[in-house]
Amino acid sequence: MFSFFNDLSRHKKHQATKALVWFEKQIKLKKIYLLIFTLLFNLCSTSSDDGVASLSNDTTTTSVIAEEDYPIVLTQCLNEEMGYNIATPFDIEDLKSTISQLSNSKDEEKQLSEDVDYCISKYNLWSDSSSLNPEELAKIYDENLELAKCLREKGLNVPDPSQQEPKVDLSGLKESKDDIMPLLQECGWQK
Questions:
Q1: In terms of pTM, does the model score above 0.90?
Q2: At how many degrees (to 10) do helices 134-153 and 177-186 cross?
Q3: pLDDT, tens digit, for every residue of 28-40?
Q4: Do 152 and 158 form a contact (C-beta atoms < 8 A)?
Q5: Which residues, 6 or more positions from 26, have their beta carbon under 8 angstroms from its beta carbon?
Q6: How far is residue 91's CA from residue 69's CA, in Å, rounded to a whole number?
Q7: Could you count the other beta carbons within 10 Å of the beta carbon of residue 163?
Q8: What pLDDT digit, counting tens, does each position of 82-133 carry?
Q9: Of 93, 92, 99, nearest to 113 (Cα)?
């Protein structure tokens, strides 16, 4: 091949070299295209897990719910899991007004409140724990642990809070709010 170059004029050598370089580029591009095609084909084809080592067959998906979607999630929970028929709200204020119109008696209001609390805790809606740092959560937990102990000493059957849910749960009490408020204040609770 080099003898072929020796017989050509300088201009022809230059043109032949350009043509050779162009040809090599085309071959490299075709190799790259072939490689890309092969990769895409392998990625898009169905995969089989045969022969693949895995630590677990279980996959856990954690979804993060945007705060503006909380009313929608709460409504879906109440409809699908609690049997209500609530229209999808525009925002939290719309949901509040809709929920306030649902109960006709104290029993219905109590049941609705329990159902709403269930859905809020199940989907971790409006939780303070996501916005507070661990030191603040520990402080709230310790304070509420003392509050629960004090309330029990005053005759209320109040469970201890958990570290996951550091708030004192007063929802199971039979006493009225008017009966509970003075006891809370005696135990040092402030609004």
A1: no
A2: 110
A3: 777 777 777 677 6
A4: yes
A5: none
A6: 8
A7: 12
A8: 999 988 887 777 888 888 888 888 888 888 888 988 888 888 887 655 555 6
A9: 99
